[in-house]
Amino acid sequence: MTEPPLLRFLFLAGTLTLGCLGSEPPAIALYPNAAVARLPPDQVSTLNGTIARVDDRDVAELGGPFELLPGCHVVELTRQIPNNGLGLSRGIYGTGQLPVAIVALPMKAGARYVLRRELVPAGTGMGRRLVFSAREELPGGAETDLHPSFAWHDVVDCRAAPAAATR
Predict the structure, then answer these.
(1) Staple 78 to which of 33, 50, 89, 96, CB 3.0 to 4.6 Å?
(2) Are 40 and 79 in contact (CB under 8 A)?
(3) Does the pLDDT of residue 87 top 50, yes or no?
């Protein structure tokens, strides 16, 4: 017995959809000679989030995630107000830009780092507060909430640190 065309179409569409779930786009390598020789995941750090700049390089249009050599990196988050659906459900529409957020972030080989800024409800009514979060995910599955430094002297020290100082 042959399958009706609609059933075949639905099966194929479902299979393709399941194959795409949970997949993350490939990381963009931001280290020297990456176009010639990509390093294995255990030798690089992965950075996720709404990133504007990494080590004075504008990466906002690239999207991410990013692969970096281990060490201290200066990361600037985008200034766009996050689109987290709050404006749709509460009758609030945010415009403008968020304050500049530049952090010194020591990164380890094989680890994944997730940086976020979110507007979350603040008490009752329509008030919102801006929350910054940073998380380190190690290859073995351990996760740690980080508190990277926004202090300018730490950013300056990070810029001066050798690339592989936190292996």
Answers:
(1) 50
(2) no
(3) no
Helix (H, G, I), strand (E, B) or coil at 38: coil
d(CA 153, CA 142): 29
Distance of CA 77 to the CA centre of its chain: 9
Q: Which helix (H) or strand (E) holds 89?
A: helix 86-90
Strand pairing category for 128-137 and 51-54: unpaired
Q: Which DSSP state fits 130?
A: E
* Length in residues, the chain: 167
Distance of alpha carbon 82 from alpha carbon 94, whole angstroms: 9
Please report where in the chains the tokens 């202090």 appear, as a residue. 151
Tokens matching residue 117:
């800024």
Residue 117 CA to residue 130 CA, distance in Å, equals 7
Cα–Cα separations (whole angstroms), residue 35 to 51, 81, 85 = 21, 33, 37
Beta strand 112-121 with 45-49 is: parallel
- Nearest Cα residue to 113 out of 45, 52, 162, 167: 45
CA–CA dist 89, 97 (Å, integer): 21
**pLDDT at 122 (0 to 100):** 80
Q: What is the pTM of this model?
A: 0.75
- Least reliable range by pLDDT among 16-20, 143-147, 159-163: 16-20
Name the residue with tokens 């393709």.
Answer: 16
